[in-house]
Amino acid sequence: MRRIRIIFYWLFHTKNNIGFIELLKFLAKPKVDTIAKTFIQSIESIDEYYKVTFHNLSRDLYWPKKFSISGIYQVTSETFDTKDWHYYQHEKTTIDKGDILLDIGTAEGLFPLAVVDKCTHVYMIEPSQYFFKSLLKTFEQDIEKTTIFNVAVGAKKDKVFFNEDSLDGQISSNSTSNRSIDVETIDTLIGQNKITYLKADIEGFEYEMLQGAKETITKNRPKIAITTYHKQNNPTEIISLIKSFVPEYNYIVKGIHGEEPKPVMIHFWI
Questions:
Q1: Which domains does the chain have, with CATH numbers?
Q2: pTM (two decimals)
């Protein structure tokens, strides 16, 4: 059904830089677990984690058993399959040697794990306690070049409620959710530190995050790879906001989301 909707959106709404041949290749793609298994060497149960070993990485990822193993397949495909519309490293937004990565909504941390050896430093922001603990284990040998924040981010300092049972990391004002967490701004967290690459996937709160990242983006002009397919997102507003910070940004929208005719990603570069 999702693929049928994407065909409909491509024909009658927007192509989002997806050509006919690319669309055909997408429609013929195998399922994400099939793709992911070409990159995964083994998955081993260790205490409260699954240790995931990859063919193309020299180090392992630790995934909390709290969450379904199917999530590993999803993020593996998004991280390594260059044809996936969710793939962060567009030809203009690749991670280069010496980059300083700010990963917002790090979750399990496969993207920074895949590029940490190239980076001078990696900042990670993840509100989930389960993923925060697994990130500490995954990156325990990279203490000197990684900083992990266990907070949410937004337009201003605040407190919200976070559902720890949700793999998507649902944030709301509902006090029946699991715990109260701090909301900080990117400008406060990063301060005078330099970044050269900003990646963000925070389940529809991307616009609010960007509002609190004006100084960081204006000063550093990083490459940006940001998801825009979540229900709360308005891609046009995100483009306008980022270009209001730095008018010189070039950008490209990429992909078609199955639920709405929205781009999956927007990539920005100078």
A1: 2-269 (3.40.50.150)
A2: 0.93
